[in-house]
Design the sequence.
């Protein structure tokens, strides 16, 4: 029982103190603001400042980093996020961000494609990506 | 005509089958090139008080006479978006509606070429984007209400064939999307106007004076040279949307048995001018909107609503109003005869107050319940008029299950 409690506490402590960040490919030199990030993940901005296409990447529904990002950066609960993207998708105004299942997959996608922008725990960041914001 | 219609139905069923089998075989919503998605609303309603309630939806959906009806507004939409090339995408949507006996019909089919990531040109069959909710009024999961307040959504044309240019402009603190479009549409027959006319002047009663149906008149409307613009601006939690449509239309009325060969009246071209403005805020748990529109020489309508999210519950209230410009029918309804078309009282004037609640079971599934009070202040009947006085007040209750997948 004590062990379980200890594990639970450490998980809570860990998630409370772990910081999440927004990352891009290390080779991408475009400047990007928090307002830009919001617009990109809501399909209102489709290109970086240099005019090249931007591909936002998030996690599948139910993921804690996705929830923290949607809530903190986009200001939308999961319900509002789904309603918003239903509207965008079925009006032909845009397609929702690509979804990956794990942080390893996120790191892999962002490190290989200079067009992408994603979200991850700060502790997972390596040289192949660069941090552009935190939440 | 019938032959053409059958071909279209066959094409739609074929497309529906392709979409369904694609769903079944991949078991996933998207691969890199093909994205399949869909939505469904199961809607059931009943009349609480009055002779009947009609929400006046496109294709004449939303009629409630007695008992519970789960068919008239229920619908399933399947959408496929295929990225054919780097800058070229093809979008198709099939709607399966209760009002059409759940026969699949091709709602949209258009190709989009992306000049830049923020600018595209689309060509094909698309939704006419006149209202704030035009493009997604079928997608119940995307708004709080059981249905979009329909008194303010009365245009009798929902889709068009043509071209649209879309551009997203990112200006520092906000974004503005511009849509310029042009096209045409032949609504033959026009189910919404036909049904409106039937209840307005063509109600039939048996010997004991009981309503027994409507005369089988038919109306058509052809829309040509449509040119429109939508400017939609979002600044954080504030949205302002302006929409303007200009064109010409030809309305034709056929008496029972005379369609399509011998029109009774109509057949001349008139100008179409439609303007719509909506303002909304979406901040924290609060959502509020007001939308107003004017169909030049035909009607003016608007609605306003407030919805508030408390955990999984979203209670809401709305008020909507419709005012037509015609003044032919005398007070007391069609049985009282006609009056001076210039100085007489309004034929079509009605409003609705509604309260409802949405409960989010999960982000992709919601249930809703709504009670509404419909007040008919015009001289013409809006729906079934048992006592033939032109007054068709009603109270109605409806529930829905809305899903996105």
Sequence:
């Amino acid at each position: 029982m004590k062990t379980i409690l200890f594990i639970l506490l450490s998980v809570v402590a860990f998630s409370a103190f772990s910081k999440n960040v927004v990352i891009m490919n290390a080779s991408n030199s475009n400047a990007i603001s928090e307002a830009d990030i919001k617009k990109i993940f809501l399909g209102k901005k489709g290109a970086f400042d240099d005019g090249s296409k931007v591909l936002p990447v998030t996690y599948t529904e139910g993921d804690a980093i996705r929830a923290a990002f949607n809530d903190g950066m986009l200001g939308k609960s999961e319900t509002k996020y789904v309603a918003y993207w239903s509207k965008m998708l079925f009006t032909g105004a845009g397609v929702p961000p690509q979804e990956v299942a794990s942080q390893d997959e996120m790191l892999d996608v962002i490190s290989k494609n200079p067009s992408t922008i994603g979200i991850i725990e700060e502790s997972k960041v390596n040289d192949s990506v660069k941090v552009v914001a935190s939440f | 005509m019938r032959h053409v219609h059958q071909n279209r139905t066959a094409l739609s069923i074929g497309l529906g089958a392709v979409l369904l089998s694609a769903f079944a075989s991949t078991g996933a919503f998207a691969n890199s090139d093909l994205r399949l998605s869909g939505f469904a609303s199961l809607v059931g309603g009943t009349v609480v008080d009055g002779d009947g309630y009609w929400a006046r939806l496109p294709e004449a959906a939303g009629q409630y006479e007695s008992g519970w009806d789960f068919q008239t507004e229920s619908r399933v939409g399947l959408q496929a978006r295929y990225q054919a090339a780097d800058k070229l995408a093809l979008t198709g949507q099939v709607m399966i509606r209760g009002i059409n006996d759940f026969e699949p019909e091709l709602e949209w089919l258009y190709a989009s070429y992306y000049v830049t990531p923020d600018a595209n040109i689309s060509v094909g069959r698309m939704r006419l984007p006149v209202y704030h909710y035009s493009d997604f009024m079928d997608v119940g999961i995307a708004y709080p209400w059981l249905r979009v307040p329909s008194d303010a959504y009365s245009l009798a044309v929902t889709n068009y064939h043509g071209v649209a240019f879309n551009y997203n402009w990112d200006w520092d603190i906000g974004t503005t999307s511009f849509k310029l479009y042009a096209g045409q549409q032949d609504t033959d027959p026009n189910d919404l106007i036909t049904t409106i006319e039937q209840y307005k002047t063509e109600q039939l009663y048996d010997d004991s004076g009981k309503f027994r149906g409507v005369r089988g008149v038919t109306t058509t409307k052809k829309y040509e040279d449509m040119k429109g613009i939508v400017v939609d601006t979002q600044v954080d939690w504030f949205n302002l949307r302006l929409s303007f449509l200009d064109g010409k239309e030809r309305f034709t009325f056929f008496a029972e048995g005379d369609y399509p060969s011998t029109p009774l009246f109509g057949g001349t071209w008139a100008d179409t001018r439609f303007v719509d403005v909506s303002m909304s805020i979406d901040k924290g748990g609060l959502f509020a909107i007001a939308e107003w529109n004017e169909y030049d020489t035909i009607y003016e309508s608007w609605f306003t609503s407030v919805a508030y999210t408390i955990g999984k519950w979203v209670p809401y209230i709305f008020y909507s109003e419709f005012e037509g410009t015609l003044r032919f029918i005398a007070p007391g309804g069609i049985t009282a005869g006609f009056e001076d078309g210039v100085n007489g009282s309004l034929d079509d004037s009605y409003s609705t107050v509604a309260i409802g609640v949405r409960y989010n079971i999960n982000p992709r599934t919601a249930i809703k319940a709504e009670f509404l009070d419909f007040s008919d202040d015009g001289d013409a009947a809006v729906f079934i008029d048992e006592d033939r006085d032109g007054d068709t007040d009603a109270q109605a209750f409806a529930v829905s299950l809305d899903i996105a997948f």
